[in-house]
Every structure is written in structure tokens, then in C-alpha cells.
Amino acid sequence: QGWTEDFDWYILTVVNPDGFAYTKSTDRLWRKTRTPGTLCKGTDANRNFDFHWRGGGSSTNPCSETYSGPGVFSEPETQAIRDF
After folding, report:
1. What is the pLDDT of residue 1?
2. Per residue in 21-32, is it b (16+ CB within 10 Å) or e — as a string?
3. How far is CA 11 from the centre of its chain?
4. Which of 2, 37, 38, 52 is most buried, judged by most C-beta within 10 A?
């Protein structure tokens, strides 16, 4: 029982469809969203939530793989999860 009975579980299979498609067509190791930027595309969606935003491990450099974005929930993908 425990975990399976005490919680509601929601499984989100693909929350970054543009990034996922890009991994299939161009760059297999791509991890960011595909939002156009001034210098480089995308934000690391894992670091775009408001919990410890811009904390350890994130970057303010838009070209970094760990770029946390210009603000919390700046990406449509993270906004959709937040609103869900």
C-alpha cells in the first residue's frame, strides 16, 4: 500500500515536444526547450521552475545547457505543468 494508496500519481510522458523532436532530427543530446533567444535557443526546463530558481547548477548564460531562463516559468512547457 503506502505510496500507491496515499498519493495521486500523474505521469507526464513528454513535456518538451519541440526539444524531443530536435533530439531525433539534429542533436541527440539536446536537453533544452526550443524557444528562440537573442543568442542561443532554449532554456533548461528542469531549472525553469520557481523552487530554488537560479540556484546551484544553473546558469545565466543563454548558451549554457543549464540556462535557467530569463525568469521563472518563462517557458510554455513549464507554464503548462504549473497550470496543470
Report:
1. 62
2. ebeeeeeeebeb
3. 16
4. 37
pLDDT higher than threshold 90 for residue 4: no
Whole-angstrom distance, CA of residue 21 vs CA of residue 38: 22
User: Three-state DSSP class for 75?
Assistant: coil
Residues 6+ apart with CB under 8 A from 4: none
Copy the grid coordinates of residue 60: 545565466
Question: Do the beta carbons of residue 47 and residue 66 sit within 8 Å?
Answer: yes
Residues present in the chain in total: 84
Residue percentage of the chain with pLDDT more than 90: 83
**Contact in structure between 42 and 22 (CB atoms under 8 Å):** no
pLDDT, tens digit, 9 for 90 and up, residues 38-69: 789 999 999 999 999 999 999 999 999 999 99
All three cell numbers of 57: 547548477
Closest CA to 43 of 18, 65, 24, 21: 65
